[in-house]
Amino acid sequence: MVVTTASLATHGLAFAHPGARRPVFEELSVTLRPGHPLIILGPNGVGKSTLLRCLAGLALPTRGTVTFAGMPLRGLNDAQRARRIAFMAQSEAETFAFTVADIVLTGRAAHLGLFHRPGKADRGRAARALHRLGIGHFAARSMHELSGGEQQMVRMARALVQDSPVRLLDEPMAHLDLANQRQVLDVVRALASEGLAIGMSSHDPSHALACGGDVLLLGRTRAVAGPVEQIIAPALLKEAYGLPIDVLRTERGRDVAVPDFGGPSSAARYLSRRPDP
């Protein structure tokens, strides 16, 4: 079933740290549309995480506005904002040895009254989110027992149970092995197909190709946005990242972005493996 949701948009957004000589970014106008994931790409230090925090209402922009369904985000209190926007941070400091199930259940807080405890339905949602990500067997374990990648999957599950029409994911594939990256990408594609608005940052242009939708490519001198097939192009990627990046089609018919990391060519590697005559 497709869910109709409202768009989250920025208008002339700028952000600068106090005392900084230059803004992290400026004049950003982008829209997260229901059913069309927006993948935010760019090198370190260009403001991907800061932009997501501004979109979530957790950081105050220096200039410009963020709107949900055309209404300024600033006009919402914390609970109202959480019912509309779920934010998954790139990392968190875990200070208490909560179980995975309890951590995921905190995603239901915005839907509960001040003195209400999660009920059976909430626990069912948490269990389904964990199973959707293939980590149902983690439920009774302490977060302190998990690796960084496993903790990342738990934070993703918490964002799922928040049941907000907008999901903002700050590098959800960080620390994940290839199979778990695929698991998260499957979930992102499924959420978009359900009509949710998804904003996700990544360091890998191939993640954008796998998701489809729209791309915001933040560079050090400019930002460009548009459909994935328009933005994930060698010239734009080289300008943003400062090294050649090819866009190739695999034998399976998938497009991937392949950076030139240097090193021996494939021919040289082949020759080095040949037995002596």
From TrEMBL:
InterPro entries: AAA+_ATPase (IPR003593), ABC_transporter-like_ATP-bd (IPR003439), ABC_transporter-like_CS (IPR017871), P-loop_NTPase (IPR027417). Gene3D superfamilies: P-loop containing nucleotide triphosphate hydrolases. Keywords: ATP-binding, Nucleotide-binding, Translocase, Transport. It holds the Pfam family ABC_tran. Residues 8-245 form the ABC transporter domain. The keyword Translocase applies. GO terms for molecular function: ATP binding. Part of the ABC transporter complex HmuTUV involved in hemin import. Responsible for energy coupling to the transport system. This is ABC transporter ATP-binding protein.
